[in-house]
Amino acid sequence: MSNPLSLYIHIPFCIKKCHYCDFLSAPAGEETQREYVRALLHEIEYWGKLLSGAPIKSVYIGGGTPSVLPEELMVEILCKLKKSFPYITKIENTAGKKKKSHVSEAEPKGKVPKVAEPEISMEINPGTVTEKKLKAYSQAGINRLSIGLQSVDEDELKLLGRIHTYEDFMETYHMARAQGFSNLNIDLISALPGQKLESWQDTLEKVLALKPEHISAYSLIIEEGTPFYETYFGHEELLPDEETDRVMYALTKHMLREAGYERYEISNYSRKGKECLHNLVYWQRGNYLGLGLGSSSMIDNIRFRNTDSMKDYVNYWSAGNIKDSSVIGIHGKTLLALSDFEEHTAKEQERYGNFQKAHVIPNICVDIKSLSQKEQMEEFMFLGLRMMKGISAKEFEEAFGKSIFDVYGHQIDKYKEQNVLTVDERIAFTDRGVDVSNMILADFLLE
Amino acid sequence: MAGIDQSKIRNFCIVAHIDHGKSTLADRIIEKTGLLTSREMQAQVLDNMELERERGITIKAQTVRIVYKAKDGEEYVFNLIDTPGHVDFNYEVSRSLAACDGAILVVDAAQGIEAQTLANVYLALDHDLDVFPVINKIDLPSAEPERVKEEIEDVIGIEAHDAPLISAKNGIGIEEVLEQIVAKIPAPEGDPNAPLQALIFDSLYDSYKGVIIFCRIKEGTVKKGTPILMMATGAKAEVVEVGYFGAGQFLECEELSAGMVGYITASIKNVKDTAVGDTVTNAMEPCKEPLPGYKKVQSMVYCGMYPADGAKYPDLRDALEKLQLNDASLNYEPETSIALGFGFRCGFLGLLHLEIIQERLEREYNLDLVTTAPGVIYKVHKSNGEVIELTNPSNLPDPSEIEYMEEPIVSAEIMVTSEFIGAIMELCQERRGVYLGMEYMEEKRALLRYELPLNEIIYDFFDALKSRSRGYASFDYELKGYEQSELVKLDMLINKEEVDALSFIVHKDSAYDRGRRMCEKLKEEIPRHLFEIPIQAAVGGKVIARETVKAMRKDVLAKCYGGDITRKKKLLEKQKEGKKRMRQVGNVEIPQQAFMSVLKLDDK
Hints:
heterodimer, A: alpha/beta, 9-stranded mixed sheet, 18 strands, 41% helix, B: alpha+beta, 8-stranded antiparallel sheet, 13 helices, 33 strands
């Protein structure tokens, strides 16, 4: 496999669920965490064998709160990654040179051929990290941290169900800098219940003073199955009205631009060159493999995801039976027994390309779907347009062998006229377009 | 059945106010006479359309012949003709009654006489039927049989002291009803050897047999081979089969003679040839004159019906064609709307009839429909002397060409308990009613008589009546005629474009109010777009009301979860799906629901 690959690793644990959170995550004891990591290590090893040839563009360790894991477990995960995917290159060079790895042995000394340094991000939350942990992360190769702050206001933090104070955050932030982390993101949420514009402005000002490399600023979404849903669904009057919400959004964009941040995606801002590479892979439809509970993958236009069931996941992988004879292969939506799989026609092999060698496990790998060209075009549009630079007509034509204007001319014309799209070599949202992006993107789904 | 003794035949129907238990009693009679065992009975045998069962009303007349062995030891043949139970079908009811010699009046022991009780019983008495009452639901805690008996005697003036006290639901007192049928309903008369004279009270299309004529033989005899003539339509045919009605099946017999009720088939292709109320006679030896009472069925209410998916237009046409085979009162002709594309202007007996057809199209033919606001037929007198019968508001000529317009008026009877008289009078006032009078039926209940424009009552009058009387008022009406009226066409403009399918005719005094409420309603129905949408109501080009659908401010999924794009896609798909149910008018997407919103203007 020669196409670049990104890896996502899911850590489904946290100290306590936040009131707005519907991520796959829950508090768990250390025993559960260890069991999970053991299974995860096996899964990493398994996929490494199948896809070891791919250059790794980025790694993202998300959650939950990955930093709740004891640091030795996190280090183990990273070691296993490096071992299984040797093209995670130059980890040692960025994180110091304490430990040897298999990769460094293979590398020539002195002048190294220029290989882009992979971005290795990890999410952390204040209240779960110590200096010792941060040091271990850095040594293990993590070169980007994403810190969940959400708000600087103590009442708002309480309302959200966060476990930390603003002070906790400051401590974490300075510790991370002290450990040499030079690429930091801060997560913020606007349009909180009862939030005033001044309060949001205060959050932005305090965060900007810290000069992080990257800021993610979302406006709150009330998700089903969360305590917030119980309280606020059908009671939208308790939330900032649409107008306030949009003003917050505009304020964010304005203040961040003044401070030298560029909005490169609907909710993401960064200093030049500090965009989150991993996120861009999603919008640009690069290959990514999700490891761990419930994580999603897309490889060579086949999408699938891991089971949400902790029990199934751990049972299957902790056995470590990587050569399990029950392993089966992908054939569009149909799962074939391995023996049948090998009897694929040449045409099918061509279609599935590199992926034909990847094997998927029933009940563990689920929702397997080989995307049709129509679906690929739709994704190209609705994912690509999330980026402020938009999409390239040329890339569309290269990917699909037809002009974007033949497929989407009607929509593009209509929305250009309504001033929500700009059309040039690239097609992108205007500011107004971003605000109402869903109703436009829906129109790019084909019949 | 040949040679049956006329004196042993009883032709009757059951009349009642809706929900007083007419169909249930019919079922019990059938069950008791042993035509079906109760195990075989599906509740309400006679209402055999799925829709009829669901709504608990009879839409098409049903007939069944049963044999009853009476206490006098004799066997009697009962022909029970179940009549439609709604004011929309008044004419059909009258023809069914004309086929009977007597009627059972069912009155609810708790509710007593209601508007339809009166309307139906008067209709029966008008046809010289002998009517005897039964008091139903006597097992209800609130039953007051003695009071109801008195009421029947006082109000209707028929004897009620020996009325059977029954519970049709629980099978109490049915024997007594059967005995009274024998005793109180007269046997038919008529000469089997006279020239044939048979009344058509219904017909049905069967793909094998052609039209099946339901008829009552008044004079003469009909059998296989008889050349017949339908006197009003002039259609001729030769009889292929005659028979009578079993439970849910047709049983062939040799002949039908005076006094009998049965069916005739004669390879007739179209129910339009066998109009309800027409007289069947022998083409070679016709009777002197047709039976009285025939009327050409006329549609009272019109609306546009369009397939939600334009490509389904041929399907809708086929479905209407098939429904019309069995329903001569359904009219349709193609029309085109700028907003809704190709569809049909359909005529109905009334709003219930409209709803039934609409539901049957949706259920039996799987069609998704957009229906425009129902309207009545207006008579437009043009200055050049021409008179147009207007069924589609879009076809209203330019006001300068109009001399004057007329609208249909009905005489309505509303029965209500005294505490609600004020509220109901107010309602009638709002609906441009002309008060004719009020009679007290008893201390606490009054019968209000009004003249009302039909277009004021077709949509929601009944609902308004119920809600303002806490369900106690009942209502009946009949068409009285046309009267001159100050009518205007109200146009709706969405984003400055007139939407033809939303136009309607309204009295000039109500135009402002209706226009305002229409704007409000459409504002609720039309989703926000990328741009601001003005909604205006206009009469003769002059805007009389306006609302604005503000431009969408925010519709953005801030967070898109890492690699899991399925949620995002589902959300967009849902949004896209919503758009499919919209109609594009200019730049604006109008939900199909909006076209029916005129119907709900009175939701308060």
